[in-house]
Design a protein that fits this description.
The complex is a heterodimer of chains A (114) and B (116).
Chain A lengths: L2 E3 L4 E5 L4 E3 L2 E3 L5 E8 L6 E7 L6 E3 L2 E6 L4 E6 L8 E9 L6 E2 L3 E6 L1
Parallel strand pairs in A: 2-12
Antiparallel strand pairs in A: 1-4, 3-9, 5-6, 5-10, 7-8, 8-9, 10-11, 10-12
Chain B lengths: L3 E4 L2 E4 L4 E8 L5 E7 L6 E7 L2 E5 L6 E7 L2 E7 L7 E8 L11 E2 L3 E5 L1
Parallel strand pairs in B: 2-11
Antiparallel strand pairs in B: 1-3, 3-8, 4-5, 4-9, 5-6, 7-8, 9-10, 9-11
The chains are: A mainly beta (114), B mainly beta (116).
Amino acid sequence: AQKVTQAQTEISVVEKEDVTLDCVYETRDTTYYLFWYKQPPSGELVFLIRRNSFDEQNEISGRYSWNFQKSTSSFNFTITASQVVDSAVYFCALSRFYGQNFVFGPGTRLSVLP
Amino acid sequence: ETGVTQTPRHLVMGMTNKKSLKCEQHLGHNAMYWYKQSAKKPLELMFVYNFKEQTENNSVPSRFSPECPNSSHLFLHLHTLQPEDSALYLCASSQDWTAEGGETQYFGPGTRLLVL
């Protein structure tokens, strides 16, 4: 069975601080995809990144970076120099190679205070 | 219109009412999904349609009835709901799963439903 754990329920930081959101997953598949989504107060889930299990290179996109470590089954997300607009709930998700059985973690609520 | 749209954005209904939620995707995708998001609960996948065929029904009560007339439209028909059905209902779409990137789901803004 597939499972995603986000142990941090809520995190509060002050603007300009760096913050890392943890994601640990379980799967018996050798090929799979990992995702991060952002859900601002408006409700819509915004796709941030997809990573396949063959690619363990870390990725950076502006202030966002992702650290994928297969050895620890983790796919952590770091926001550098956080801003108030980063306040949202962030979901980590896992899917099988052909997109079925898409599983979301419980989410981490990030509050960035001015 | 771009992306995934959902109407209405907010809905209040009584337990004896019948209403429908509508989802439309403008991304040329072939798979569509309904999710339920309750307060303090993980996202729950309700239904999956791939090329208009229902491929998944996660033990959803029969008071929720999906309909997918074509690959661009998805409906969720509601009747005799319970107060515990109050939640944010999210629609998503993705490409054909066999396509590169086909597993990435794109979400609409959701319908906030309150059942009185």
